[in-house]
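dumping these here so i dont lose them again. two proteins, back to back, each one seq then C-alpha cells. dont judge the mess
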Amino acid sequence: MNVLIADPDRDFLMSYKTLLELLENTVQTVFDGTQVISKLAAEKFDAVILNENIPRIKCRDILKVLKDDKIPSLVITSKKEKLEMADDCIRLPFLPHELTDKLEHISQQRTVNKIG
C-alpha cells in the first residue's frame, strides 16, 4: 500500500514509517495539514494516517478532502469516541501491532471494494 502519515511528532513518524516499510508498504511522511493537502494533490495514496491534532489545517477539513477523494483514513486520537468522518481511529497510547492491524483491515476493505 502507498500510505501517507501526517503527524507533528517526527520521532513517531520515523519509527512507524520504518515499521510500515518493513511490512512492504510505501510510506511518505508530513508534519502539518498543508503538506497533507499538497501531497494529496500530487500523488495517489491508498490510505492516510492522520493525527487529530495536525497543525495548520484542521483534521476534520482534511477528512472532508479524503472522503471526497475516497481515500481511507485512520485517525490517531486521544478521544474515546470515533471522529465522525474518519474511516477508523486508533487511540493513544497504542502498540505497533494495533496500527499494523488497522492498516491491514483497510487494505482488505480496499480489496473487497475493488472485487465487489
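---- next one ----
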Amino acid sequence: MPLTDLAIRQAKPLDKSYHMPDGGSLFLEVTPAGGKRWLFRYRFAGKPGKLALGKYPAVTLAEAREKAAQARRQLDEGLNPGHEKKVAKATAKTAAANAFEIIAREWHAKELPRWSEDHAARVLESLEADAFSALGRIPVADLAAPLILETVRKIEKRGAVDTAGRVLQRISAIMRYAIQTGRAEYNPAADLSGALRAAKVEHRPAMPRSELPEFYRRLEAEPLLFPTRIAMHLLILTFVRPGELRAARWDEFNIERAEWRIPAERMKMRAPHLVPLSRQALALLEELRPLTGRSALLFPAQTDHDKPMSENTLSYALGRMGYKGTATPHGFRALASTVLNEEGFDPDVIERQLAHAERNKVRAAYHRAEYLEERRRMMQWWADFLEVQRGEVSNR
C-alpha cells in the first residue's frame, strides 16, 4: 500500500534500520535513532543503485514522489540518476563559488594595491549597499542586463544619480574580471551604456575601447609626418585637450620629475595643470626632441615655427583613417574617462586628471596638489593598457 503522512509520522524506530515501501521503488528508511529519509532504488546498466532523496519531514511525501518520478524519467532517457545528482551538486557548488558577490570581493582584493585606502573603502561600501542584496547570490554567468538595470535604477530613483553610474561602472568592471578569469563569457552591463536617465551626454564622438587595436592598426598604416604621429600618441596617453597639446612648449616639461606643467593661461579653466608622464610618454618626447627641440614648441607649424600646428591637423588625420563623424581628438578624453572608471579608478582622481572645473575655490586649490601619487599610478596604468592594445595589432 502507498504510504500516508500519518503512517510515516507514526513509524517508530527499531533496533535496526528498516524500509517502508511507497511503490515505484520509493522507500522511507527509518533508522534506530529515529531518523527518516527517502531512498529510491534502481538498476542502471545491470547494476543496482540507490539514490538519497532527502530527509523527512524536510522533504514531504509529495516531494519525494516527484523526485522519484524525475529519477524514473532520467532512467527512461538513458541517464544514471546517481550520476546526474552528482553533476547537479557540482554545478550548484560551482555556481555558488561564482556568485557575483564572491567575484566582486575577489576583484576588489585584486585592485587594492593601486587604490588608496579611502577609495577602496568607498568602492566596497557602494557594492555592499547597492548591489549585493539584489545580485550577490546570482552566478556571474547568469546575470542579465534587465536585472542589473533594475538594480542601478533603484539607486537613481532615490536621487543618487552619480552613485548609480559608478555602481554600474563597477559592476561592468567586475563582469570583465569574471570573463578574464573564465567565470563568465559575456558582460551584460556593457549593454547598458546610456541607459540611466541621468547619464552624461558625450557631445564629441569618442571611439569605444574595443576599437583601440583597430585604431592603432590604422594609425600605423597612415602616412603621417613623424611629429603628427607622435602628437596623436601623446594626445591619447595624456588625454589633455587638443589645444593644450598643440601649444605645448618644451620649457613646460621636467623630464627628471616626469611631469608636464601646463600654465593657467593655456588651460580652459584658467588654473595650472600637472600631467604625470608615463614611461611611454617620456620615450615619445625623446624621439621628438631631435626634430623640434630647437623650437620653443613641441609641435610647430610647418610654415611658421613660432606658431603651433593647425587645430585641424589631428582631426584631418582621424578623418583619413576612417573616423570622420565617429571619433574626434577631444573624444580621447571621454575614452580615457570611460575606461578608467570601468577599471575601478577613483572618480575624483580621474576628474582631477581631466582638469574639470571645481566650483568651490577652496576645494579647487586643495585639489591642485591632491591625488598626485594616485594620478602617477593611474597614468602609467593607462599607458600600459594602451601598449597592450597596440600589441594586439602586431599579433594579428
